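Hi everyone, sorry if this is the wrong subforum. Our group has a chain we'd like a structural model of before ordering constructs, and none of us has done structure prediction before. Sequence below.
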Amino acid sequence: MGASTSHQRNPILPQTAGARFPPEFLKKVFEAFKRATGGKDILRLRPFLELVLHNVSGMPPQVARQVFNAFDYGDVGFVDWNNFISTLSVLCHGTPEEQTRLLFYICNKSRTGECTRAEFVSFARLFNHKFVQKAGWLLRSQLDELFPRPGSSATSSGGRAPELIDEQEFVQWALHPNQRQS
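Answer:
Right subforum, don't worry. Here is the predicted structure as tokens:
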């Protein structure tokens, strides 16, 4: 995979993740995971896509691939039980900040830890087809605020190129819209 260039991030610890589920549910999920992996304890991309696309009607295949990338937080090309339960924990019981961080890593197709305007727009358009039909759900002004265009008076914090945003900036933008840095 791209481990040498991929941005490594801190996962939710499996012990903490498991504690977020009732023990009987956790046992059932573990058994289903074992069945899905054929007893190999790892889930590679193709079986992951088959599992997700079969069980989540209408999900665009590209989104499913990017969800795999978020589950594969070590960028090793597979999802093991720890990756799986940690990410599932965030999806089901995560705080808004944890879920927003996960969304950033689903959106960050290049897996660099910095999302480009093009990645963000491409991801947003995938959801605009069916899941998000509300007009104006992502206004150009919001996009320009998140990713200032070259030559604009707005700048990205941290001294990076304005067309990039990191995880912290994304969370700030998504959860605290009135506290944005300028």
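For your construct planning: Residues 92 and 176 are 22 Å apart (CA to CA). The beta strands are 42-44, 78-80, 114-116, 164-166.
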